[in-house]
Design brief:
Order of helices and strands: HEHHEEHHEHHEEH
Number of domains: 2
Number of strands: 6
CATH class of the largest domain: Mainly Alpha
Strand order of the largest sheet: 1-3-2
CATH architecture of the largest domain: Orthogonal Bundle
Helix content: 40-55%
CATH topology of the largest domain: Arc Repressor Mutant, subunit A
Largest sheet: 3 strands, antiparallel
Distance between the termini: 67 Å
Number of helices: 8
Strand content: 5-15%
Radius of gyration: 21 Å
Shape: elongated
């Protein structure tokens, strides 16, 4: 089995944030064949990362021969609530190329406590790129936002999982926009308070 197939399937599984997975959904998201998906998922099941909870085998069509296709539904195996660390470790094994988020994660581990402008200056990356990953880490309880003491948000690393960045579900566009609106409201409220004080 080629590692690129496993890498792609694992990344898709983690990015969906779903507990149950259907073979047809994975085919659509990865553009792999039915056979390729089954090979990868069978391997992940043997290694203890997922388990089959349902199996659909359509009846043979008239004149059809050979092995019938199976359409399983799998469930992710969790250590505890919202913890998919076994599969995250599997993703780490097959991920080789150093990504932008790998660099961000290293910077966060060095800074430990930071604001987005500070992280932007430290990494020389765009703030929008950093903000999205910081929100993901915050949602995954890797980072914690300090109580609002000013118009610039301060984040603290509260769960250092090690040198390899954690692989967490992506946040939806709706959640991303909601978070940015809340940030904007907090910033405006702080600015209005400062103006009133002066």
């Amino acid at each position: 089995m080629r590692k690129p197939h496993t890498k792609k399937v694992v990344e898709v599984i983690l990015s969906t944030g779903k507990e149950t997975l259907k073979v047809n959904d994975l085919i659509v998201k990865t553009n792999f064949t039915h056979k390729q998906i089954l090979r990868v998922m069978d391997r992940l099941e043997r290694d203890g990362y997922v388990k089959t909870v349902e199996m659909a085998v359509p009846p043979r069509k008239f004149g059809e021969s050979g092995i019938r296709k199976r359409y399983p539904t799998w469930k992710l195996i969790k250590v505890r609530a919202n913890d998919y660390s076994p599969l995250q470790k599997r993703a780490v094994k097959v991920r080789k190329k150093d990504t932008v988020r790998d660099k961000i994660w290293r910077a966060i581990r060095i800074k430990r406590k930071f604001t987005l402008p500070e992280l932007t200056q430290f990494t020389q990356m765009k703030e929008d790129c950093l903000r999205d990953y910081v929100y993901i880490l915050e949602a995954g309880r890797i980072l914690k936002r300090q109580p609002n003491t000013g118009k610039i948000k301060v984040f603290v690393l509260v769960n250092d999982v090690g040198p390899t960045r954690p692989v967490l579900p992506e946040i939806s566009n709706k959640d991303r926009l909601t978070q940015r609106r809340e940030d904007a409201k907090e910033t405006n409220a702080t600015q209005n308070k400062e103006t009133t004080t002066w």
